[in-house]
Amino acid sequence: MNLDGAVLLLVDYQQAFDHAPWPRRWNGDVDRNGKTLLAAWRAAGRPVIHVRHDSVEPGSTLRPGQPGNALRPGFEPLAGEELVSKSVNSAFIGTDLDLRLRRLGAKQVVACGISTDMCVSTTIRTGANMGWPMTLVADACDCFDLPDGKGGTVPAEAVQAAHVATLGFDFCTVTDTQALVAALEGN
């Protein structure tokens, strides 16, 4: 796997997602996988950009000043790592993410976070449409059970599978934590 010029983009690893009103998530390993990838990325001396959703919606658990707005333990930026604040699903819309990537000399973006079908997917789609080669680390992502509009629920596992398949079909390369860590150690 070629990681030349790759920047790791950690999308919305925030504490709010562990509590109501957010529905059940499927991936009990999201934090472990995300932290494993982040540690390997840092050890390789590669650039990291953190993304935080700063909601402008009244009452949102992701609103600045709310406990849920904070990044999950272990995902806080270290000195020299950038933090992009966004208020919509895509980390590219209304932010300077594209400029930051260019200033870092990025050639590709490796993304993961919460949730696969919302902010991660929208960021990958936007980035791909802007010309960035995008990679999704599927097992370092998570998503929620969603209402199906008919009184039922679409399980988070099905939401994940459909979105990973769609993204991999047309917008990005799909990989997993183990493959990326091995590629980092091989470089």
Automatic annotation (TrEMBL):
Q: Which GO terms describe its molecular function?
A: hydrolase activity
Q: Which positions fall inside the Isochorismatase-like domain? A: 7-144
What Pfam families does the record point to?
Answer: Isochorismatase
Q: Is Flavoprotein among this UniProt entry's keywords?
A: no
Q: Which residues cross the membrane?
A: none
For this UniProt record, give its keywords in alphabetical order, as a comma-separated list.
Answer: Hydrolase
Q: Does the keyword DNA-binding apply?
A: no
Classification via PANTHER family: ISOCHORISMATASE HYDROLASE, PEROXYUREIDOACRYLATE/UREIDOACRYLATE AMIDOHYDROLASE-RELATED
Report the protein name in the record: Isochorismatase hydrolase
Q: Which organism is it from?
A: Nitratireductor pacificus pht-3B
